Amino acid sequence: MKAIDKKKISELKQLIDQSASPLIITHYNPDGDAIGSMLAMYHYLVKKGKNPVMVSPNDYPEFLHWMAGNDKVTVYKRNTGTVINALNKADLIIAVDFNDPERTEGLEKYINEATGKKVMIDHHPNPKDFADIIISDTNYSSTAEMVYHVIESLGDEALIDKDCAECIYCGIMTD
């Protein structure tokens, strides 16, 4: 497994520091890695003093609802207008566990048209070129493992608290 590109990490650090309205989004029919990665990134951004919005394109299994922060996830299929508005207002969009906006089934148009900077963190092959920063490596077991290494590379490993760690663990164990 190769180290995450230092230039990309530096650019991501700057985007996070400057962001006033970050949004984290995952793929349609999210699994443990998708939800765990999104929630881990959420907890990290909260520790950085941000107030991120989390978006799932549709509902996900009840067995994933135990993780801290689950109650803050906005489901597009139930809150269409809210999600579209949030995407339009976001100055930073972090896509986790998907490599193509089409995997959001209905949100790809809004993701592609959004003016906020886009970051992809994913471990699937053949990423599409839709993000300003693409952090993609198929050698990782899961996107959650990548999220851990991204946070570590940003120099913020100390911000990984119990809630964040449990989300990362869930993502790694279920993928």
Task: Explain how this protein is built.
This protein has a 6-stranded parallel beta sheet, with helices on both faces. The model has no long low-confidence stretch (mean pLDDT 97). α2 packs parallel to α5, α2 runs antiparallel to α6 and α5 runs antiparallel to α6. The protein is built from 6 helices and 6 strands. 39% of the residues lie in helices and 15% in strands. The radius of gyration is 14 Å and the shape is globular. The longest helix has 16 residues. α4 links the parallel β4 and β5. The two termini are 17 Å apart. The protein is α/β, with parallel strands linked by helices and 175 residues long.
How would you briefly describe this protein structure?
The chain has 175 residues and is α/β, with parallel strands linked by helices. It has helices spanning 6-18, 32-47, 80-89, 108-113, 143-153, 162-174; strands spanning 22-25, 53-56, 73-75, 92-96, 117-122, 133-136.
Characteristics:
about 180 residues; 6-stranded parallel sheet; about 40% helix
Oligomer: single chain
Q: Please trace the helix and strand order, writing H or E for each element.
A: HEHEEHEHEEHH
- The counted number of beta strands is 6
Helix content: 25-40%
What is the structural class? alpha/beta
Report the average pLDDT across residues: 97
N-C termini distance? 17 Å
Tally the helices: 6
Q: Record the strand order, biggest sheet.
A: 3-2-1-4-5-6
Q: What overall geometry do the principal axes of the alpha carbons give? A: globular
Strand content: 5-15%
Radius of gyration: 14 Å
Biggest beta sheet summary: 6 strands, parallel
Low-confidence stretches: none
